[in-house]
Amino acid sequence: MDSIELLRVGFRDLHKELEEDTHDVDEGTLLWQPAPGANHIGFLLWHIVRDEDTVVSQSVMKQPELWVRDGWAARLGIATTEQGTGFESAGVEGIRYRLADLF
């Protein structure tokens, strides 16, 4: 198995698990923060997807990220430069979307 196939299998399995784990999550649960400044499920899910896009688009495909190219940033109302690291509490709280919009 080469590195591209390894990524393909790994991301396929990750997608399956994420969909299974979130299929019945309602918006309140998706955006619930257990403590002030804590990450909510929606933030963590978005961060995983966003990082995958960066790895696959830039490192493997050598193309612009889908995040910008296909308008996902605009669709979800999140800045094109956001990656999900180094966020202050307000940044985490600003990541809001409907789960159906991500899948």
Description:
The chain is mainly α. The protein contains 7 helices and no strands.
Assess the beta-strand content as a share of residues: under 5%
Rounded to the nearest angstrom, the distance between the terminal CA atoms is: 28 Å
Provide the residue-averaged pLDDT: 88
Low-confidence stretches: none
Q: Return Rg in Å.
A: 14 Å
- Topology order in helix (H) and strand (E) letters: HHHHHHH
What's the count of strands?
0
User: What global shape is seen?
Assistant: globular
**Class per helix and strand makeup:** mainly alpha
Largest β sheet strand count, sense and barrel closure:
none
Number of helices: 7
| Helical content (DSSP H or I, runs of 4+) | 55-70%
Task: Give a short overview.
This protein is an all-alpha fold and 103 residues long. The chain contains 7 helices and no strands.
Topology of this protein?
Blueprint: H1 3-22, H2 27-30, H3 41-61, H4 66-69, H5 72-76, H6 89-94, H7 99-102
Helix pairs in contact: 1-3
Which keywords apply here?
103 residues, mainly alpha, 7 helices, globular
